[in-house]
Write a structure and sequence with these properties.
By secondary structure, the chain is an alpha/beta fold. It has one domain: TIM Barrel (Alpha-Beta Barrel). It is 52% helix and 12% strand. The chain contains 16 helices and 9 strands. The protein has helices spanning 6-11, 32-41, 44-48, 51-65, 78-82, 103-107, 114-131, 145-154, 162-170, 172-195, 213-234, 251-258, 271-278, 290-295, 297-311, 330-342, and strands at 69-71, 87-90, 94-97, 137-143, 200-205, 240-244, 262-264, 284-288, 316-320. A 7-stranded parallel beta sheet has the order 1-4-5-6-7-8-9. Helix 7 (114-131) packs parallel to helix 10. The longest helix has 24 residues, at 172-195. The radius of gyration is 19 Å and the shape is globular. The mean pLDDT is 97. The structure holds coproporphyrinogen III. Coproporphyrinogen III binds at residues 24-29, 38, 44, 71, 73, 75-77, 89, 94-95, 141, 143, 147, 157, 204, 206, 323.
Length: 345
């Protein structure tokens, strides 16, 4: 059956009159109704693994702002958790894991209970496929192997992924094994999301920007390419969006090699370059600076029209260059949504 949703049509490269939009991290701490449910759930992870609550949290921004796509509420770190790595989210600190930085620790992980552990997430996808308004598309997601590995190896977030880049040089064989495990588990996870009703997928490689060119090919392009191939063997037509954040000029090779259907563009990349170099090869998504959503006012509105006008000749999904910042006033998100709903190409 053909999918007529504006967001899906755009990802298929078709011309649409209005630019579809959603915002990365559109569910989250900037919404008081999110804070209320997270408190009721107990912790962030409890929220992720509670299908009823996770469904509700996914729907919250859609009710307020009427986006064209809803992103499943979960986190990229449920994969290491499902493989058996300890994980906790500490308030004000972010994720904390027991580092997997040698062969012995890697061997303690197992893919055996992957689906059993992630079953609540699949249930959330099923709920959402049922509950979403007809015009809203459901986006499933996962972290790319490199980005997930940076948390697994270091045990927490890091500024420049130093520990993981070092392990990739010093213990290349073990690191390759870790990436292989992530390619396999992430492929299976994303395939299951589509089985349960996800209509598009996004693969977040938030920290690919610190990789030198050759390492970018090895740890970003190659694993994502393999995941895309694995998914396509089961779901040949599911649109897949890549997000190699910080990749700059390497975006073009990323798209060609991985064969993603569309690419999400971060804030640092100019829209004229995207228009001239990326849009001719695939639909693009992006790339408003999330800080402008905090700031609001005339600079915000100007930037929104600037992006729309630059990218209107080709397929474009309006989005941010990275996730919504917790300090964002919801009324600024409302203002941008209203502009986007009224804008015609
Ligand atoms: O609305 C949505 O986008 C849906 C859900 C979503 C979350 N995380 C929820 C979340 C998505 C798509 C993610 C992706 C994610 N998670 C990424 C890739 C995208 C990016 O932002 O770069 C990464 C690197 C993570 C890992 C992660 N999760 C970190 C580093 C943190 C702590 C930092 C922070 O923002 O608090 C999280 C926590 C997290 N994931 C929250 C939410 C709503 C905040 C948790 C809370 O409620 O306190």
């Amino acid at each position: 059956m053909a999918n007529n949703k504006l967001f899906i049509q755009t990802l298929q490269g078709k011309k649409t009159e209005r630019v579809p939009f959603w915002f990365m991290r559109q569910a989250g701490r900037y919404l008081p109704e999110y804070m209320a449910l997270r408190k009721e759930a107990g912790s962030f992870l409890d929220l992720c693994y509670n299908p009823e609550f996770a469904t509700e949290v996914t729907l919250q921004p859609i009710r307020r702002f009427n986006m064209d796509a809803a992103i499943l509420f979960s986190d990229i770190l449920v994969i290491p958790h499902a493989l058996g790595q300890d994980l906790a989210f500490k308030v004000g600190e972010g994720p904390v894991l027991t580092p997997v930085d040698n062969l012995e620790r890697l061997k303690a992980l197992s893919i055996e209970n992957l689906h059993k552990h992630l079953n609540p997430v699949y249930q959330t996808v099923t709920n959402l496929a049922e509950k979403l308004p007809n015009h809203v598309a459901l986006v499933g997601f996962a972290g790319a192997p490199w980005t997930v590995a940076t948390y697994m190896v270091n045990g927490k977030g890091s500024k420049d992924q130093a520990e993981t880049r070092l392990m990739a040089y010093q213990d290349r064989e073990t690191f390759q094994k870790l990436i292989d495990l992530l390619v396999l588990s992430t492929s299976e996870y994303l395939i299951k999301q589509v089985d349960h009703g996800a209509e598009a997928l996004q693969i977040f490689d938030s920290w690919s920007g610190t990789l030198p060119a050759d390492e970018f090919i090895k740890w970003c392009i190659d694993p994502v390419k393999q995941i895309v191939k694995n998914i396509r063997e089961v779901h040949p037509h599911i649109p897949i969006i890549g997000f190699p954040k910080g990749a700059g000029a390497k975006i073009k090779n990323f798209v060609k090699k991985t064969k993603v259907d569309a690419v999400s563009i971060d804030t640092s990349t100019s829209t004229t370059w995207v228009r001239d170099v990326v849009q001719p090869i695939c639909p693009v998504q992006g790339n408003l600076d999330p800080m402008l959503l905090v700031s609001g006012g005339v600079p915000l509105e100007k930037a929104v029209y600037h992006i729309l006008d630059h990218l209107k000749a080709g397929p474009h999904v309006f989005n941010l260059g990275h996730g919504i910042i917790p300090q964002t006033p919801p009324e600024n998100v409302k203002r941008v949504s209203d502009i986007l709903l009224a804008y015609r190409k």
